[in-house]
């Protein structure tokens, strides 16, 4: 079978090593990540457990705080103000409605390891990569989209011969999921790096791209009349995140040698994907947890009196 | 029939007069409100038309810009930066998902006449009424919740003998709708002003209050086990905003002499409400449009070089 299955653990390994070294290098500044869990959602609980386990491995301090959802906002505000806390993660869903998006922006940008507060989202969509004119403080990128970028780098989809920021030029990618937390930011990130991205959800297909010859500074979005069946055969990379057990990508539509990446908690590709794909990544969760910690170390460094030595 | 029906137009009349006077007082600073319409939603179109008509009446300049939804974000960013534009309103829904909430925070707080960007929402929930320590710039309150507050003031529900900020002390209010745009902010506003508020949606009942003797600085929220049938008989005021034609409040459950206010585009009270209520307000839209313009004049004043003479 020519398809190579790449496990998230193998991508995560080098990041875990880097994290360990960075934490060990500053024993006097062991950063504290605080996780807030205000629900019993099994995926949220699992994500919280994973965070804890990986932090033990890397040496980051992790404190899981279980709070009533009605006390969560005040708990976040207190953690924002507490200098002992370097990073904050909230395990969503909490209210499972738009109030969750409000809560995302209650987390201070200085401690938002998830990169979900408005200023980070805005900067990401606008391809603004630094928080300051002097380019000393990088913007935080949401963990799951960032993890998928790192997976694609690992897989060689990013071409390092091309200049930084244009390394997906020539690639066509489908992202099946257009949530505000993963699918839409991911489509924007990949398009900002030069790809032509087809963003797919139940309402239809959109194209995110920087135009012919990646002439635009940042992506623009165009509604398409094509269906997912029309665009899948064009794609070099297909990334799925459909949170439904029964959903499966129709393997017959995929290009031979496609790169297939699944970030759903369910398997969105059928078993026959290995007859079609060149590279298959069944999950990305372990890389996501690394990115969370990477974001934490960055923010912790920015919080130090100075000189700010960003990891 | 003892029930008095109060039309939004009669509440709006005095605000329209005030707006006219304020605009006429500064002919050299006629403010420009820009409305963005990126959909064909009939209520959004109607709201845009109303805005236009009322602006003609008050002398405010209004410019409706029809844009493709994919161009909307850039159009907002351009209007944020344009000194000729004093206020911005977006007629939602645009994408009718969480991307709309992202767009709300793309509007600059300096021009956000709707009061929907994160900083205004956060300040409202936290009962922070000014943007600056010196208390020279008031926070903008979302238009529909603010309109309902003004309706309740008009109806005498706010007791002006009590100190400002506590004028609903002793009142019990139901708000049937807990959307992020109207119901939840409204519940918070009323609770911050001293009321005990039951916030009702399909997921259940919550209580927003400042505790016994309104001892807290701002409201807290508690999940209740009571149903809407349990709490409605306790309420002095019932405010509804259920966007469903078939939904009707069960009049039999209401307290005799209740104050009934409907802000849904549909009539959430049955015709027999007039046999039960002391005051009935069938809609608030015309007051909402006044609040929009009131917010605009305030923001326009803050944008003037100075002295900032807030209306």
Automatic annotation (TrEMBL), chains A, B:
Q: How does it assemble?
A: Homodimer.
Family, similarity comment:
Belongs to the tetrahydrofolate dehydrogenase/cyclohydrolase family.
The UniProt record lists the EC number as 1.5.1.15
Q: Name one GO cellular component term.
A: nucleus
Extract one GO BP annotation from the record: one-carbon metabolic process
- Keywords on record: Cytoplasm, NAD, Nucleus, One-carbon metabolism, Oxidoreductase
Q: Which residue ranges run through the membrane?
A: none
Localization: Cytoplasm; Nucleus
According to the UniProt entry, its GO molecular function terms are:
methylenetetrahydrofolate dehydrogenase (NAD+) activity; methylenetetrahydrofolate dehydrogenase (NADP+) activity
Report the residue ranges that make up the Tetrahydrofolate dehydrogenase/cyclohydrolase catalytic domain in this protein. Answer: 9-114
Taxonomic superkingdom: Eukaryota
Q: Extract the InterPro entries matched here.
A: Aminoacid_DH-like_N_sf, m-THF_DH_NAD-bd, NAD(P)-bd_dom_sf, THF_DH/CycHdrlase, THF_DH/CycHdrlase_cat_dom, THF_DH/CycHdrlase_NAD-bd_dom
Q: Spell out the protein name for this chain.
A: Methylenetetrahydrofolate dehydrogenase [NAD(+)]
Against CDD domains, the record matches this protein to: NAD_bind_m-THF_DH
Q: Name one Pfam family in it.
A: THF_DHG_CYH
In its keyword annotation, does this UniProt entry include Cytoplasm? yes
Principal location listed in the UniProt entry: cytoplasm
Question: What functional role does this protein have?
Answer: Catalyzes oxidation of cytoplasmic one-carbon units for purine biosynthesis.
